[in-house]
Design a protein that fits this description.
The protein has one domain. The chain is built from 1 helix and 4 strands. The strands form 2 sheets. The protein has a two-stranded antiparallel ribbon with strand order 1-2. Strands 3-4 form a two-stranded antiparallel ribbon.
Length: 70
């Protein structure tokens, strides 16, 4: 289910203290972020310890060498 959040309109169920949490949005934020990162030849992924334990999003972008100016 982790990778589903990066798909277009990819939403996952959210829960908090036994009650469903109402989340606004149409599910495009992470999809758009992923596409922008990929355009820069980068990667994004998520790490989670489980439900209600929080998530960490990792972004890896290539380092661009700067040209020396005279």
């Amino acid at each position: 289910e982790k990778m589903k959040i990066f798909k277009e309109f990819g939403k996952i169920e959210r829960y908090g203290k036994g009650l469903d949490i109402i989340a606004d949005g149409i599910g495009l934020g992470l999809y758009i972020s992923k596409k922008i990162i990929e355009l820069h030849k980068g990667e994004i992924w998520v790490d989670s310890k489980g439900r209600n334990k929080g998530s960490t999003f990792i972004i890896k972008l290539p380092k661009k060498k700067l040209e020396k100016r005279d």
